[in-house]
Amino acid sequence: MILSIRNRFTGIITEIVSGSVMGTVTMEIPGGQSLAATVTMDAIKDLGIGIGTAVEALIKSTDIAVATTEVSGLSIRNKLAGTLVGLDSGGAMSVARIKVGKDVELTAAITRAAAEELKLEPGTPVTALIKSTEVSFSAV
What positions does the domain Mop occupy (predicted)? Predict the structure, then answer.
């Protein structure tokens, strides 16, 4: 299957918090940071996953926000520290490439105005912000 989702990488499940309908799956990504995904309990069961299972995380570029300063007071579960390694800008949009771990690079589609306001350039320390409900995964 070919997907248009740019952000795809493997992680190992470290925690599953079960609920009556939804659960939260936390995975460690290469480089030691954690990524949380909120999915249905049916999906967890259907995939047959557990602690130690390798999964592939999938995140659309449009589901990632970028911060250049300390972030707190947010309900967003995923705050991945990284370094901007590239920025491609067009008329209205920019694509920020962020290294967040060993062999893990995310792309974030943000407005060109935001990229300019944040003064993004390669080498800038950034945080990729991703709601756990916007992270999908598949069993590897």
Answer: 2-68, 73-139
Give the domain range for residue 27: 5-137
**Which token pair is 70?**
């300390």
Q: What is the pLDDT of residues 10-37, one digit of tens each?
A: 999 999 999 999 999 999 999 999 999 9
Question: Domain with 52 in it: what CATH number?
Answer: 2.40.50.100
Q: How far is CA 129 from the centre of its chain?
A: 7
- What's the domain count of the chain? 1
- Outline where the chain has alpha helix (H): 41-47, 112-117
Place of tokens 């925690």: 15
Q: In the prediction, which pLDDT does 133 show?
A: 97
16: burial class by Cβ within 10 Å (0-12, 13-18, 19+)? middle
Q: Strand runs (DSSP E) across the chain, as ranges?
A: 7-17, 22-28, 34-40, 54-59, 65-67, 78-89, 93-101, 104-111, 125-130, 136-139
